[in-house]
Amino acid sequence: MMDIRSARMTTFALAGICGVLVLAGLIQFAGYGRGYGWLPAEEVDPGELGGEIDRKPFKMPALASFSQVDSRPLFNEDRMPTPISDGEPDAAGPPPVPLNVTLTGVILVRQTETTPELRVAMVRDNLRNETVALKVGMPLSGDQAGWTLVALAPRLATFKNASDETAEIELYPAAAQPQPPGAQRPPAVAPAPPGAPAPGKQDNAAETDLAKRIEERRRQMREEAERLRSQRGNSPAEQKN
Predict the structure, then answer these.
(1) pLDDT greater than 60 at residue 83
(2) How far, CA to CA in Å, does 64 sit from each of 59, 70, 76?
(3) Are 147 and 132 in contact (CB under 8 A)?
(4) Helix H segments across the chain?
């Protein structure tokens, strides 16, 4: 019984709402609320619209009217003007550190179809007592970070700093390279016995052996490049084309 009674009350409420909406629609359809229009311009009183509109453009006051802002700045804790220094701040940074490196080796690989061009300089930083490998365009690290490797030749490396100063470092043989600070010097060599080669000849022999090993390594790299090129030429995709 309670469910039927609730359903009837809901039905009556919905019917009443629908009746009110239908009545409102009939009133609007009859034209209620359409009786508005614009008044003629000559019959409009500006005073009735909330006062006369200021049609004058805004003009900035004179700078003298802001003297209190200059004399007592709002964003200063003591409300006193910030003192202006007579001297200009020194924009120049610290002087550049002189270049102190030793060129210990140069690696130059020409660009081929299989290998890109490679230019690497083996440099010993005498200030940090360590050896680093630098490609062209890379800077040094540490106190000499202002120097950048800009060019590399078979026996010459060119560095440049932020002041456009250039320095050229030449490659010397290992026997002629200066020892870093703190390094132990080699012990004195006793006089060679009769018939033994002179020390200068031994250095030349070491340089010749080093040159032979470098040439042998280059020959191996060329053979490897030729082998890779031949493998690419014999690949199925190449033969199909």
Answers:
(1) yes
(2) 14, 10, 21
(3) no
(4) 2-29, 67-71, 199-233, 236-240
- Listed by start position, the domains of the chain span 101-172
The class that CATH gives domain 101-172 is: mainly beta
Q: Any idea what DSSP says for residue 139?
A: B
- How sure is the predictor about 190, in pLDDT bands with cuts at 50, 70 and 90? very low
Give 160: exposed, middle or buried? Use CB within 10 Å, 0-12, 13-18, 19+. middle
Retrieve residue 150's tokens.
């800009």
Mean pLDDT of the chain: 75
Helical H runs in 30-115? 67-71
d(CA 167, CA 208): 29
Tokens representing residue 147 in the block: 């120097």
Q: Residue 101: is it exposed, middle or buried by C-beta count within 10 angstroms (0-12/13-18/19+)?
A: buried
Q: What is the pLDDT of residue 233?
A: 66
